[in-house]
Amino acid sequence: MAHVHRTGAFDFIIFGATGDLTRRKLLPAFLRRFLAREFGAEARIICVARTAHSTDEFREHVQQDLREFAPDVARDEDKLREFLGLLTYVALDATQADADWQAIKAALPDPERTRVFYLATGPSLYASVCEALSAHGLITQHSRVVLEKPIGTSLATARAVNEGVGRFFPEEAIYRIDHYLGKEGVQNILALRFANPALEKLWSSEAIEHVQITAAETVGVGSRGPYYDEAGALRDMVQNHLLQVLCMVAMDAPASLRADDLRNEKLKVLNALRPMTPDMVRQNVIRGQYTAGRLKGEEVPGYTQDLATKHTSSTETFVAIRTKIRTARWGNTPFYLRTGKRLATKTTEIVLQFRPQAWPIFTNMPSPGRLVIRIAPHEELSFVMAVRDPGAGGLRVRNATLNMSYEHTFSIAYQDSYERLLLDAVRGDPALFIRRDEVDASWRWVEPILDTWQQGLTPLEPYPAGSWGPASARALLARDGALWHEDMLT
Ligand SMILES: NC(=O)C1=CN([C@@H]2O[C@H](COP(=O)(O)OP(=O)(O)OC[C@H]3O[C@@H](n4cnc5c(N)ncnc54)[C@H](OP(=O)(O)O)[C@@H]3O)[C@@H](O)[C@H]2O)C=CC1
Ligand SMILES: O=C1O[C@H](COP(=O)(O)O)[C@@H](O)[C@H](O)[C@H]1O
Fold it and tell me: Where does substrate bind (predicted)?
């Protein structure tokens, strides 16, 4: 039976409650945790956006959304009604200091309760929302604020967002969410490394030839075109998710699992990333944009057709990066990061490629082994290693795979990472949220790449939808004699 960690009463206030994120992720996540009895009917979820709705009308919309986005759990009518009863809707323009903030206050009668403000609007509103919350006496001693990504679009704008919010909330009450940190497979990196001393002994340049971190998507930009065209893959995925995963793979053991011990170690990794000069960007960063192609047997349009509003765009939908971490542990191991839309398959994975045998005594050595931590489409650990090829006569070796699939090993249902993170914010556990100095360090590393691109110093390479990105992404690894995972034969 799954362990249930029940929370006390809380008030959760979502700004941006009619938006895509709330509809597809946040409210379905809350419903699932409610059904898992992690919280009860005493919780209040106050939903705020500009669109005029009564609470009843809003609940009606949410009911339809839950049927669409959480069909497996939205079937129990009584429970669904009970959950919808926790929701209150407040229509308010959060940019207006004189809007009806009292309506939110009225929905929050108990200042002693845990109060979580979740900002799921665009980040340009974060500081003004916090200012209004403060001006209307809504921030209590028991309040926290959760900030959705992106935190800024550059180091300067990220600082402005953080300073704006920091005027009203202390750093320990600011929870910057990165949903990749809530993924089971990403958290399992900690268990894998720090609960298996034997494995941790292999975890360095001595045994590991290279590391690849891939977040490949088959989807295009969908309805988020206006946001994405401003952001691009580097800001949307690398600055946050991929760098956080890299930190989990590369960091040294923290003194404890307490938030600041973890964050201190992650920060050291970010600060040890080899800085990107324009020359380094030219040699080590590939950017691409998808064109029309075929995916899962169907014709799909190119990026600018998906945008529909423009004929040309210089926004990258694919990035591949080769980097190094300047530490004794990792100095000789390249890290390859890659993400893109409209790629051949939905795959999120980390591959740790082991070094070859220094003095092979077998004549038919297969490729050196590797550890694959797969996060999507399903969670799985695979250890590829050389074994004796069974049979009489001679001693031949070949690769075979030890596999651990989460689905087959654990009875616990797959949890969307938001389920875990929302409840962590309620419980006041910031370990899986990003500290301000991590945001700064990530931007500091990413910004020279953006600057180099802006100066037109590297080409934007087209790739057909359904492929693995521009051919040069392959060449990036070939230079080191390495292959991307999908190109490895065994
Ligand atoms: N969608 C996703 O998958 C992800 C989104 N994010 C981030 O989450 C945030 C929200 O994204 P998403 O839901 O896609 O965006 P949407 O554009 O779909 O939603 C924005 C929400 O903000 C509300 N809003 C906008 N302006 C105001 C205002 N002045 N006062 C009050 N409410 C306002 C809108 O409601 P109304 O128009 O009714 O006011 C709407 O509810 C963004 O920062 C995004 O980058 C992060 C990761 C994934
Ligand atoms: O934050 C984002 O992540 C999603 C990919 O998330 P995943 O959990 O499906 O791997 C991406 O599609 C989106 O563009 C980005 O904003």
Answer: 179, 183, 217, 236, 341, 346
Q: Which residue is closest in CA terms to ligand 1's atom 14?
A: 20
- Ligand 1 and 143: CB distance under 6 A: no
Q: How far is CA 249 from CA 188, 269, 477, in A?
A: 10, 10, 19
- Indicate if ligand 1 lies below 6 Å from the C-beta of 129: no
The reply to whether 110 falls in a domain is yes
pLDDT in tens, 310-350: 789 999 999 999 999 999 999 999 999 999 999 999 999 99
Domain assignment present for 137 = yes
- Per the prediction, the chain carries an average pLDDT of 94
Quote the tokens at residue 93.
């323009």
Atom of ligand 1 nearest to the CA of 121: 22
What is the average per-residue pLDDT within 45-57? Answer: 97
With bands split at pLDDT 50, 70 and 90, how would you rate the model's confidence at 274? very high
Give the β-pairing of 460-464 and 285-291.
Answer: parallel
Report the complex ipTM: 0.98
- Spatial neighbors of 416 by CB under 8 A, at least 6 apart, are 25, 28, 29, 32
Q: Give residue 106's domain range.
A: 10-176
Q: Whose CA is nearest to atom 15 of ligand 2?
A: 236
Residue 98 has pLDDT above 60, yes or no: yes
Give the Cβ contact number of residue 292 at 10 Å. 17
Summary count for the chain: helices (H), strands (E): 18, 18
Which atom belonging to ligand 1 lies closest to the Cα atom of 15? 32
CATH number of the domain residue 290 falls in: 3.30.360.10
Supply angle C-alpha 303, 306, 310, rounded to 5: 80
Q: Are residues 110 and 232 in the same domain?
A: no
- Look at residue 2 in the predicted model and tell me its pLDDT: 57
